[in-house]
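Dear H.,

Thanks for agreeing to be a second pair of eyes. The structure we're designing against is below in token form, covering all 383 positions.
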């Protein structure tokens, strides 16, 4: 069902360096404490923006974030005059996932947002875990520098690595999502001089990147360079759906091969489809398609889409997902927290000779190889 990430030999050569550099972000100081309590926070400079505009944007974002969890997550307190918002969240952190096993923990946390003129501070604290449905820990006893690092603070203690690193990644993704909500844009790069408060427009004084002004109900549009999250984790652990076709005839498939980047001075998304898949026929026929991403609550739907064929199955009914049509006519699903709409830019079938890695070449010897699609990102929407 899942597809591994196809990495070209040039990228393979860079991976050890990238991982080595990334490791340091999980070491000393990566888990901040205030008065002995773990408190992650990020401050956003929104010079020129009014407090009410920031508050409305953050309240909408926090409400959508809590609702998409489909559990007890909720807005616990909001005060527009004070610019204060508090929410309690419950989500999954996935440590590893395969067709045969799933290692994850429930994470409960408190989210507090303080909005002031030209400034916003987002905090994540009171973090608690429920692991394997019975083991309960809090962040202070499980991921702090004192507990999780060795004496020299150069390594993470064995057994605590996954909790510390994945929590840091989780909070970073949370803050990136908030940042994306504050960075919504409608026009070409510009510094807005007058304060605005409507959703879908840039906050005053915010430098933004170009995106289309086309709306999509229930979503906020962002520029491609504002896409939140770690794309490698989003693909390899969380998976995505590739959906090709039109409203009259479309199909979606689960995938975890791909990436984001730039080609011919255009923001692009890369995905791979095996010609044996039903989605391949539709992908070849039409120019636009979508890549959609989901929270852990929809893991079952993605598993279903990855193990059933649209040739002889009503995958929409079976998955329980709700189709929506973008203004450009592509198909997506309202349960997605992120929708990336693409227009085909380059399509190339992979040949055995193109695979430089001998082990990969041997693994795929005699098998049907995939076709690579590099699509120009024409729209991005987030909840």
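And this is the sequence the design step returned. I haven't edited it by hand at all.
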């Amino acid at each position: 069902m899942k597809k591994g990430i196809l990495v070209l030999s040039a990228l393979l050569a860079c991976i050890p360096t990238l991982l080595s550099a990334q490791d340091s972000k999980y070491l000393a100081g990566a888990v901040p404490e205030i008065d002995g309590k773990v408190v992650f926070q990020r401050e956003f400079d929104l010079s020129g923006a009014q407090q009410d505009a920031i508050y409305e944007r953050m309240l909408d974002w926090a409400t959508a974030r809590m609702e998409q969890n489909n559990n007890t997550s909720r807005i616990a307190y909001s005060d527009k005059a004070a610019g204060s918002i508090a929410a309690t969240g419950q989500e999954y952190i996935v440590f590893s996932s395969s067709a045969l096993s799933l290692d994850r923990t429930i994470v409960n946390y408190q989210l507090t947002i303080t909005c002031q003129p030209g400034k916003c501070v987002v905090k994540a604290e009171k973090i608690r875990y429920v692991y394997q449905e019975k083991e309960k820990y809090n962040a202070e006893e499980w991921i702090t520098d004192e507990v999780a690092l060795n004496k020299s603070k150069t390594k993470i203690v064995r057994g605590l690595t996954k909790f510390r690193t994945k929590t840091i990644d989780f909070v970073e993704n949370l803050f990136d999502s908030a940042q994306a909500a504050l960075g919504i844009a409608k026009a070409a790069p510009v510094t807005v001089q007058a304060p605005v408060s409507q959703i879908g427009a840039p906050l005053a004084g915010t430098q933004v990147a170009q995106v289309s002004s086309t709306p999509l109900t229930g979503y906020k549009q962002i520029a491609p360079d504002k896409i939140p999250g770690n794309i490698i984790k989003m693909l390899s652990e969380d998976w995505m759906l590739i959906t090709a076709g039109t409203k009259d005839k479309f199909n979606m498939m689960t995938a975890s091969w791909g990436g984001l980047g730039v080609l011919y001075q255009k923001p692009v998304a890369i995905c791979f489809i095996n010609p044996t898949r039903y989605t391949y026929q539709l992908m070849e026929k039409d120019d636009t398609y979508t890549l959609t991403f989901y929270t852990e609550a929809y893991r079952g739907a993605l598993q279903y889409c990855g193990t059933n064929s649209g040739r002889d199955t009503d995958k929409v009914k079976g998955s329980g997902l709700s189709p929506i049509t973008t203004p450009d006519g592509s198909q997506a699903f309202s349960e997605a927290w992120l929708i990336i709409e693409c227009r085909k830019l380059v399509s190339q079938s992979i040949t055995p000779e193109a695979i430089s890695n001998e082990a990969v070449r041997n693994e795929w010897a005699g098998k049907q190889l995939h076709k690579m699609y590099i699509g120009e990102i024409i729209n991005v929407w987030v909840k």
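Two observations from my side: The first strand starts at residue 33 and ends at 34. DSSP finds nine helices and 17 strands in the chain.

Warmly,
E.
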